[in-house]
């Protein structure tokens, strides 16, 4: 089994996610990018699990998927509230915490 | 109990603190605490007395050793400051006197002081006074003695000024305090001199050194004079007696306890306690006139003479106290140690009796007045108990056989005669005559004739009459302890005087000469009683109007009138002190002090002020404005600038935070990768 292909795919996904988080203005797209990062992690976990014949990696991945679902729930709620307050989901508008 | 005699002063001391903190919350406002504590003290004193007597009786004659008990309180170099107790006959006798009179006064006060606005504080002060006095009596070192001595002074001050809202009362308190303080300077000097003489504060050792040590006689004499100054102040001896009559401003039970029975005898006690120093310093064994006997003798006559012209019943008793204290001091001066202590013992009972009787009269008979001429008279039929107790007290004071005063006074006279001090024997006899006469005047004006007051006289309540009756019984029986003349009883001497063998062994007490019991002087006793009776008779005849010759003598005879004026102005001593002494000191010294103040002190102060101001201006301009403010402002400015730079990072943009996060993670990973 060749590990490199999996790791390259995962690194690509991760970088895409980072770029999305930092560059996109739309809060929904930022959330989606966070999901991309998490899934990159999942691919890594499962690849190493299969590579080492070790089941715990897959269990970790299951946990990550569950928590990601919860995180999306909370994140969408924040986005909804943001829309209610600013009438938009533009992240640049939400700079009220500036010092 | 003899080893633990310190328990006796402990209880009143504790009750002082307890009354002060909790007294007001108790149902009887603290008086129950005071009475309980002094009651315990009294029981312990009686136990101590009984144990001491059995200790003396069970030892071989003259072998009753005193008990010493103590420890070093603190030490500074080689100087040790000891605390301890010395239980001997003198301490035990005074324990009994002080605790008995104090207990009766405590009980009496519940009725006399009822409803007083400072009732609780009154009891607190009484407790502290009892504790100080008991502590002083049992102290084995001059330091302990000083502590108790000053404690009684403070309590006396508090109690004389108990009703301080009225100016005369607080003035009297101050006068008492300052006058005794004048003498107390002598006590401090005396303690220091005796310390450097004997290199110890222990009283027994000081006495031993003064009697047998290798010290110069002048040193002992100076120490004795210094200590005697304290006695003059405290025991109301001429010429510092003037505070005692004024001290009658305090409540009457206080006068009975402090200014008649106990505190004022502290001076007599001091002489009796440090008798070695006095005996050796004033050469009492010599038979010549010495300072102690002379001052005592002058005081006897002078106090008695003043008692004739007082219209305030308490002042009569106050001058009588001065006169009787003169007797005690005179007795000590002529070497009659036992007689002096015996007179102290009996006098405490009958004088407390008389004072409490006077209090009873003012409480229920004369509407809180003490003026015999205006508000009393004819009280005999309204207040029979008070009358009879007062009368027996009077007879005891006048020295009529067989009451207590007879025995002690007779012993003083007999010993004075035996020690060849015949001058003082005559003084004592004149004093006895005058005492009998002025007390008759006092009884007549108070209890006989017509009632001149405006109140409704009635007998006092039980809490007042019962202490009177107890004291009356004591005024009758106290003398029989040493009824050498008739019954050959010399128990007082056996019990309370240091035994001969002990004197030889410890050497802290002079070997005293005693008139032999077998050869007692009946003639002297009969003469003294006759003189006292003639005093009573003469005064009685004068006041009942049977002696026409003497009537209006002061109006008719210029010399007599002059004498009366002289007496009424109390020998002008108060004028001497306040106007001449204090005035002359006040004027020039005050002027000099003013000049010094204006020129020297003010000059210095102004100079210092001006230069300080200039220095301050300089400091303001240079140091404060330039350096300090510059530093502070600069720091603030720089902090502001730094904040301005940093605030750009806190833009509130979530994504920039994310950038920083990932950049940091990347940098750290790079660092880890490079280093590994």
Mind explaining what this structure looks like?
The complex is a heterodimer of chains A (99) and B (676). Chain A has 99 residues and is mainly alpha-helical. Chain A has three helices and no strands. In chain A, helix 1 runs antiparallel to helix 2 and helix 2 runs antiparallel to helix 3. Chain A is elongated. The termini of chain A are far apart. The model of chain A has no long low-confidence stretch (mean pLDDT 90). By secondary structure, chain B is an all-alpha fold. Helix content of chain B is 72%, strand content 3%. Chain B has 28 helices and two strands. Chain B has a two-stranded antiparallel ribbon with strand order 1-2. In chain B, a hairpin with a 2-residue loop joins strand 1 and strand 2. In chain B, helix 15 packs antiparallel against helix 18. The longest helix of chain B has 75 residues. Chain B is elongated, with a radius of gyration of 34 Å. The chains are: A mainly alpha (99), B mainly alpha (676). Chains A and B meet through helix 1 of A and helix 28 of B.
Relevant terms:
heterodimer; A: 99 residues; mainly alpha; 3 helices; elongated; B: mainly alpha; 72% helix
Please write out the topology.
The complex is a heterodimer of chains A (99) and B (676).
Chain A: H1 4-23, H2 27-52, H3 56-86
Chain B: H1 7-22, H2 31-58, E1 67-76, E2 79-87, H3 89-112, H4 119-138, H5 142-160, H6 167-198, H7 203-212, H8 217-234, H9 243-246, H10 252-261, H11 265-273, H12 275-281, H13 291-307, H14 313-333, H15 337-364, H16 372-375, H17 384-398, H18 404-418, H19 422-447, H20 462-477, H21 484-487, H22 491-496, H23 500-506, H24 522-543, H25 553-556, H26 558-568, H27 573-647, H28 654-675
Antiparallel strand pairs in B: 1-2
């Amino acid at each position: 089994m060749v590990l490199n292909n999996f790791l390259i795919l995962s690194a690509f996904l991760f970088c895409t996610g980072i770029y999305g988080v930092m560059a996109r203005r739309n809060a929904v797209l930022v959330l989606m990018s966070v999901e991309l990062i998490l899934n990159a992690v999942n691919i890594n976990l499962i690849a190493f699990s299969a590579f080492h014949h070790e089941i715990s990696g897959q269990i970790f991945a299951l946990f990550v998927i569950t928590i990601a679902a919860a995180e999306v729930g909370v994140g969408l709620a924040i986005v909804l509230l943001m829309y209610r307050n600013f009438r938009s989901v533009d992240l640049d508008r939400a700079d009220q915490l500036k010092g | 109990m003899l080893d633990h005699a310190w328990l006796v002063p402990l209880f009143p001391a504790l009750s002082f603190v307890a009354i002060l903190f909790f007294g007001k919350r108790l149902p009887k406002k603290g008086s129950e605490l005071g009475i309980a504590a002094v009651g315990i003290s009294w029981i312990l004193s009686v136990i101590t007395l009984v144990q001491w007597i059995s200790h003396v009786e069970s030892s071989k004659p003259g072998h009753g050793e005193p008990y010493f008990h103590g420890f070093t309180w603190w030490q500074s170099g080689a100087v040790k400051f000891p605390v301890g107790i010395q239980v001997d006959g003198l301490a035990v006798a005074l324990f009994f006197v002080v605790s008995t009179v104090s207990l009766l006064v405590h009980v009496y006060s519940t009725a006399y002081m009822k409803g007083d606005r400072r009732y609780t504080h009154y009891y607190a002060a009484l407790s502290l006074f009892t504790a100080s006095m008991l502590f002083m009596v049992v102290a084995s070192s001059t330091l302990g003695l000083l502590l108790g001595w000053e404690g009684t002074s403070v309590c006396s001050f508090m109690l004389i000024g108990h009703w301080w809202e009225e100016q005369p009362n607080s003035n009297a308190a101050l006068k008492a305090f300052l006058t005794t303080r004048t003498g107390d300077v002598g006590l401090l000097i005396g303690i220091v001199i005796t310390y450097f003489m004997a290199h110890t504060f222990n009283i027994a050792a000081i006495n031993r050194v003064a009697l047998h040590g290798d010290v110069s006689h002048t040193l002992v004499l100076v120490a004795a004079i210094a200590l005697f100054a304290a006695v003059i102040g405290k025991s109301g001896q001429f010429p510092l007696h003037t505070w005692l009559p004024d001290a009658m401003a305090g409540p009457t039970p206080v006068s009975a306890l402090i200014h008649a029975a106990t505190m004022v005898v502290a001076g007599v006690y001091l002489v009796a306690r440090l008798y070695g120093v006095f005996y050796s310093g004033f050469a009492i064994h010599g038979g010549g006139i010495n300072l102690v006997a002379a001052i005592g003798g002058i005081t006897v006559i002078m106090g008695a003479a003043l008692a004739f012209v007082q219209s305030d019943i308490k002042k009569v008793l106050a001058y009588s106290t001065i006169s009787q204290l003169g007797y005690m001091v005179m007795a000590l001066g002529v070497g009659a140690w036992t007689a002096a202590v015996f007179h102290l013992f009996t006098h405490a009972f009958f004088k407390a009796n008389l004072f409490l009787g006077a209090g009873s009269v003012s409480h229920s008979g004369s509407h809180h007045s003490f003026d015999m001429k205006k508000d009393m008279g004819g009280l005999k039929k309204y207040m029979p108990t008070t009358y009879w107790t007062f009368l027996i007290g009077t007879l005891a004071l006048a020295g009529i056989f067989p009451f207590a005063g007879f025995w002690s006074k007779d012993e003083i006279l007999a010993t004075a005669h035996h020690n060849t001090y015949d001058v003082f024997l005559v003084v004592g006899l004149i004093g006895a005559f005058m005492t009998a006469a002025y007390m008759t005047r006092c009884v007549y004006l108070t209890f006989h004739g017509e009632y001149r007051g405006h109140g409704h006289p009635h007998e006092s309540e039980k809490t007042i009459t019962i202490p009177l009756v107890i004291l009356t019984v004591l005024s009758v029986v106290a003398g029989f302890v040493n009824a050498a003349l008739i019954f050959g009883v010399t128990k007082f001497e056996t019990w309370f005087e240091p035994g001969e063998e002990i004197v030889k062994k410890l050497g802290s007490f002079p070997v005293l000469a005693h008139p032999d019991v077998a050869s007692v002087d009946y003639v002297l006793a009969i003469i003294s009683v006759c003189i006292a009776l003639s005093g009573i008779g003469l005064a009685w005849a004068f006041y009942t109007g049977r002696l026409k010759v003497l009537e209006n003598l002061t109006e008719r005879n210029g010399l007599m009138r002059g004498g009366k004026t002289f007496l009424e102005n109390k020998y002008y001593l108060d004028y001497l002190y306040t106007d001449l002494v204090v005035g002359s000191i006040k004027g020039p010294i005050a002027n000099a002090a003013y000049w010094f103040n204006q020129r020297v002190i003010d000059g210095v102060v102004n100079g210092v002020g001006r230069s300080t101001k200039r220095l301050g201006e300089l400091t303001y301009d240079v140091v404060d404005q330039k350096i300090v403010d510059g530093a502070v402002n600069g720091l603030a400015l720089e902090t502001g600038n730094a904040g301005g730079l940093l605030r750009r990072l806190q833009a509130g943009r979530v994504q920039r935070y994310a950038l920083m996060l990932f950049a940091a993670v990347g940098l750290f990973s790079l660092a880890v990768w490079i280093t590994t």
